[in-house]
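Researcher: Before we compare anything, I want clean individual predictions. No alignment, no superposition, just each chain on its own. First chain goes here; please echo the sequence and then give the C-alpha cells.
Model: Echoing the first chain and its structure:
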Amino acid sequence: MTPAQVRKAALIAATAAPLMRALGATYRWRVDGLHHYDAIVAAGRQPIMAFWHGRILPATLFFRNRGIVVMISQNFDGEWITRVIERFGYDTARGSTSRGGSRALVQLRRALTEGKPAGFALDGPRGPARVAQPGAIFLAGATGHPILPFHIESNAAWTMNSWDRTQVPKPFARIGMAVGQPLEVRDTQETTIDAGIQQLQQSLQTLEVRARQLAADVVTS
C-alpha cells in the first residue's frame, strides 16, 4: 500500500473502534448454541470459527479478547479491518484466496497448535457473497480441529451497499446469534473438501433462520 493508504487505514481504525465499542454497549444479545464453543475448548481442541463476511462487525464485538487469529486479506480493506480487530484482542494471518493464502494458512495452523482459535470470513475477501471458499475446510482437514459455524442477525440494522451487504446493528438493537454443530473434516482430499463446503453452506443457511428468530425474539425449542 502507499503511505497515504496506510495513514487512511490508521485513521479509519482510530475512528471505527471507539464507535464500535459505544454501539456494542447498547446491544441486547440472544445466543443459542454457544456451548459448542465451550465443549471444543474443554476437550483440548480449538474451534475454527466460520461465518459470512457481512457479519464481521457484530462477530468482532461478541468474540473479542479470546485470542482468535483471523485470516484477513492483504489489500486496503484488509489493512484497516486488521487495525480495528486488533484493538478487540484478535490476531491476524494476512492472506486470501487471491494472494498470500498459503502463508496465512500456515500461520493459522501454527496458531491452532499453540492453542488459539482460528477465524474465517468464508466468502472473503471479495465474494461472491455467501459462497464458501475452501480455506476453512482445508485447515480443518489438515489439523483435526473442528469448524464451528455461526450466524448473526439483528432486528434493526443499517445494511451497507457493498458486495457482502455488511450489516451494522443500530443502537439498542436485539441481536440473535446461532452457533451450529461442529463440523469434522477427516482429510484434505478434494472430494472431502467439496462435501465439507456443501455441508457448511447448508449449516449456515439453517443458522440464519435460527438467528433471525432469536433477533425477532421468537422463542422456539
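Researcher: Okay. Second chain, same rules.
Model: Second chain and its structure:
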Amino acid sequence: MKARLLISALLLASMLPQAANALVADPSRIDAYVTPYYNSAGPVIKVGAYNAGLASNDDKRFVATIRSMKKRWTNLTFCQMYVGSIRLYDLGYRQESVYWFYSAQYRGRQFALLLDQSKMGRIGDPGFELFHAQDAFMTLAGPYVNGYAFGDLDSLTKIVRRVQRENGSVVDLPTIYPGVTFAPKATWRAQNAQLNAGLSQLLSMLATQKDQLKQQRVQSGTEAQFSHLSSKPL
C-alpha cells in the first residue's frame, strides 16, 4: 500500500499546478537542454531516425515527421515524445504538444519505475542517461507546456483521460530501449496499474479545484504570460 501511495504521489507531484505557475523568459518557445538528446539552441536533436524532421522549420516536413511518428506511437521512446512535444509547442501546435508532453511524462515515469536501477550503469550508459533524462525533460519543459495547458482545464482533462486510457498496459520496453535492464516482466502490470492510478488523482484535482487553479494562475502572473498564446490545428 505504501509503495502504491508513493508511486501515485510522485506522478501527481510532477503534474501539480506549481509547474503551471512558473514564469519563464519567453512563453512562446521552450528553452531546454537535455544532454545528449536535445538542445534548443539550433535546435540540436539526437533521438534517432526523426532528428532531421523534428529539427526542421519547414512546416510541411515537420508535420510529416510528426505524423510518421504517430503511426509508430507505441514504439517511440519517451525522449522522442518529449522532443516532439517541445517542437510542436515551438512551432505553434500547442494543443497537440500538451498530449505529447503528458504521454512522454507517463512513459518516462514508467521507464524509471520499471528500470532495474541496480543495473542502470554509469554516465554514458543508456539506462543511466535515460533515467536522468526523463526527469530533466519534465522539469525543463513542464513550466512551458503546463503554463499553456492549465489555461484550459477542460481540454487538459480530456488529454489526461486519454493518456490514462492509452497507457493501461506496458509497451515493449526491451525493444524500445536496447541495452537497458528492467525489473522482471511479471511485476510490470501491477507497477503500471499503480502509476496509472496517479492520473486519477490528477483528474480529481482538475475537477474539484478549478476555481483555485484559475486563481493561482492569475495571482502568479502565469495567466497574463500565457493567455495570449494560440494553437494551430495539426
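Researcher: What stands out in the second chain?
Model: The chain has eleven helices and three strands. Additionally, The first helix runs from residue 2 to 15.
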